[in-house]
């Protein structure tokens, strides 16, 4: 029995390790946090009526979905900000070139 438990534990450890080998996105992190908070909140609320497991089973997926949606919004906001930064850097470089061109023209006169 103990060997079987150890084998199952090792298998779960390898599968989880392989699944988490890449860095998590903001959406995934937010989903995990939301799922944990939802399950915890559901368990607390469920325990007040005597059904903590049912509360956790309901709160977990609700929190997961809410967290993933929030993470998705954060990701899109971050992408928009990065596009704005890239645009601003390109505009700054264009203005520097224009400034240099004007200085050279002034020096020729």
What does this structure look like?
The protein has 109 residues and is mainly alpha-helical. It has one domain (27-108). The protein is 90% helix and 0% strand. The chain contains three helices and no strands. The protein has helices at 2-19, 26-48, 52-108. Helix 2 packs antiparallel against helix 3 (52-108). The radius of gyration is 26 Å and the shape is elongated. The chain starts with a helix and ends with a helix.
Q: What does the average pLDDT come to?
A: 83
Query: What integer value in Å does the Rg equal?
Result: 26 Å
Main β-sheet description: none
| pLDDT < 50 stretches | none
- Looking at how many chains there are and whether they match, the oligomeric state comes to single chain
Give me the count of strands. Answer: 0
> What sort of overall outline do the alpha carbons produce when their principal axes are compared?
elongated
> What structural class results from the helix and strand content?
mainly alpha
For the termini, the CA-CA separation is 93 Å
**String of helices and strands:** HHH
Number of domains: 1
Number of helices: 3
Residues in helix, %: over 70%
Strand fraction band?
under 5%
């Amino acid at each position: 029995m103990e060997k079987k438990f150890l084998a199952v534990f090792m298998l779960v450890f390898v599968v989880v390790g392989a699944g988490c080998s890449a860095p998590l996105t903001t959406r995934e992190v937010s989903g995990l946090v939301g799922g944990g908070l939802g399950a915890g909140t559901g368990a607390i609320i469920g325990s007040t009526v005597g059904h903590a497991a049912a509360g956790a089973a309901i709160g977990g997926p609700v929190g997961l979905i809410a967290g993933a949606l929030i993470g998705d919004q954060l990701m899109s906001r971050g992408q928009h900000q990065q596009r704005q930064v890239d645009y601003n850097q390109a505009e700054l470089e264009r203005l520097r070139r224009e400034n240099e061109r004007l200085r050279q023209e002034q020096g020729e006169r």
